[in-house]
Amino acid sequence: MINWFIEPLQYSFILRALIAAVVVGIVGSVLGTYVILRGMAFFGDALAHTILPGVVVAFLFGWPLAVGALVMGLLTALGIGALSGQGMVKEDTAIGVIFAGAFALGVALLSASNTYTVDLAHFLFGNLLGVSVSDLWLSIILGLIVLLAIFLFYKEFLVISFDPVLATTLRLPANFLRYLLLVLIAVTIVVSLQVVGIALMMAMLVTPAASASLLTRRLPPMMAIAAVIGTFSSVSGLYASYYFDIASGPAIVLVATLIFGFVFVFAPGRGIAWQKR
User: What single-letter DSSP state applies at residue 90?
Assistant: First the structure.
């Protein structure tokens, strides 16, 4: 059993991939609790896809992919916030318009390259085993920034998530907090880009947090449980990728989905099995 666990770690690229997967499992799951509490799953999915043009431009010019993704992610988050904040269109409408346009632009730019199919698969489903030392450090730094922001604004995010009326009464800067949350989602997506890719990013934001929400109703335990589930899914998915020769990103997401299915059925007091009893 010990050899089964240690064997992959003799390769440096596996070790880097493992650390990157743990970072994504923790950061994505913790922030994901706010995503599901505020009903922002569609926004997160759209934002994950709209960073494609930035990634493609960075790829074509030989820049770090995370730089292009971060710039496009921040612009998209602020753009969606600005459009929906004017009151002329609803937020889901603004998301849909920008999502479709940006993703189409990214695919159009990518189609101009000679390795269209390979590159598109790389962007959509991640390349965890290709994480470089610089990629790893960038993920760690950005992940720590996200976690620090969540820690510093924990009470404010808690109030606007559960009681918007109280937030107004307390005169909290609702617009600032809303934009900050959008930016944090964009940064988290950049952190997760190399691990699970654009197409599967939403799973790491939503699935572990959704599982945790079925196990507890209190936010701090929900964050902790989501982080544990996200970390376990990431590590287990990476080992499944190594031993069964399957793509690492989809393997991680499949583990997280299986855990959600198990919790959905057997969650104490709330699972289907308990309700039937």
Answer: -
